[in-house]
Amino acid sequence: MAMMTTATSGLTPEYQTFYDKQLLSYAQPQIVTAQFAQKKPFPRNKGATTIRYFRPIAPDRSRVASLLEGVPLANFQEIVYTPIDVTLAQYGEAVKISDIVSFTDLFNTLDQGTRMMGEDAGVYADFAVVTQVCNTVTGVNSANRRYAQGLANFAAVVAAAPAAAKLVIKDLLGAYTRLTITKAKKPEGREYATVITPEQAYDVMDDAKFIDAGIRGNNNGLFSGEIGRWYGNRILVTTEGWKESAVEGTYDPAGTIYSAMVFGREAVGAPIMAGQSPFSPSVIVNDKADSGNPIKQFITAGWKAYWATVMLNDLWALVIRSKSTYV
User: How far apart are CA 188 and CA 178, in angstroms?
Assistant: First the structure.
C-alpha cells in the first residue's frame, strides 16, 4: 500500500502571502541649495502680498573730495536705496483616504501620506531656489554666465566633447575670483558655496587637487551636503540640480549639460508668510464629518505654503554650465 505525503501543493487554499510590515528603503533626493537662500519672515495682517527689499549704496572712494581750508563743500552726496520687489504665491498638496482604508490598512496610510507630503514640500522648495538662480542669472547679466574651460557660450558647450566641456579647477578658481571682484559676502563667513550635480562631482573629485571634506582637520563647520573644497569654494552635491539639452534656460531632466551654482551670501532670498513655510510645512488633518462629507466616508490631509523666491543680488551668484565625462 503506497504512503501518501501531504505537500504544500495540496494545501494551496490555506496558504496566504505574509506581508512584512517593515517598509523598504526608498530613493530620497539630496537637497542642499535652499540653505543658501535668505529666509525672510513675512508678517501677517500687514495688508500686503508683496515684499520690498532695499539695498543701500555701496562704498565708493570717488565720493571723497579734497577740502580747502575755510571753503565749504560744493557737492553733497545723495543717499540712494535700490528696491527689489517680489510677490508671494501659494502652493500646496493634499491626500484623501477613504474610511474603508482607515479601517483595514496594514500600514498607517495617514502617516505615510504625511511623510510623503512633507518630503514633496522640501524637494519642491529646494528646486524653486535652483530654478530662480539658473533662470534669473541666464540672460540677466552676461557676467554671471560662465561656461566650463573658457568655452564662449552655451552653443559651444553643446558642440564640445565631454572632456573639453567638463568642470575643471580653473572654472571654480574663476568663480571665486568673480565673486571676490563683486565683493560678494561669504555664506556664514566661510568660503563661497558651490552646488554641483553628481555628474559634475565625478569630474571634480577626480582632480588631484580636490580636498575631501573631513580630512586635514577640515571637518569643522561643514555645510549640509558638503563633500570638500576647492580654491575658496565649499563644494556640495545635489541630486536636484539644473540640467539642459539644446535650449539654455529650459530645464530637461534628461539633459546632459549641467549647471554648477556658486553662491555668495544673500544672493537669493525666500520671503515666507508666517506659519506658511514649505521648508517645515504644517499638515492640516480633517477627520470630522461636515457638509461635504456628512457620514465621514473619508479623511483629508494637506499642507499649504505662501512664499516666493527672488534674486537679491545677481552679482553674487554665478552659474557655470558644463558637460561630464561620467558614463
Answer: 19
Q: Which three cell numbers stand for residue 154?
A: 552655451
Expressed in percent and rounded to 5, the helix, strand and coil fractions of the chain are 30, 30, 45
Are the C-beta atoms of 57 and 80 separated by less than 8 Å?
A: yes
C-alpha cell at 288: 470630522
Instruction: Tell me the C-alpha to C-alpha distance, in Å, between residue 140 and each of 3, 31, 154, 245, 315.
Output: 87, 26, 15, 20, 10
Q: Is 237 helix (H, G, I), strand (E, B) or coil?
A: strand
- Distance, in Å, from the CA atom of 127 to the CA atom of 279, rounded to the nearest integer, reads 12
d(CA 261, CA 147): 12
Residue 99, all three cell numbers:
474610511
Q: How far is CA 193 from CA 121, 147, 205, 218, in A?
A: 23, 18, 16, 15
DSSP state of 315: G
Amino acid at 24: L
Helix runs in the chain, H state only = 99-104, 109-140, 154-159, 162-165, 169-181, 198-204
Cell numbers representing residue 93 in the block: 498638496
Q: CA quadruple 32, 34, 35, 36: dihedral positive or negative?
A: positive
**Any idea where the domains of the chain sit in the sequence?**
30-55+87-327
Instruction: Please give the CATH topology (third level) of the domain spanning 30-55+87-327.
Output: phage-related protein like fold (3.90.1690)
State percent of the chain over pLDDT 70: 92
Q: What φ, ψ does residue 299 adopt, rounded to 5°?
A: -120, 155
**pLDDT tens, position by position, 47-70:** 999 999 999 998 999 999 999 999
pLDDT, tens only, 203-214: 988 877 776 665
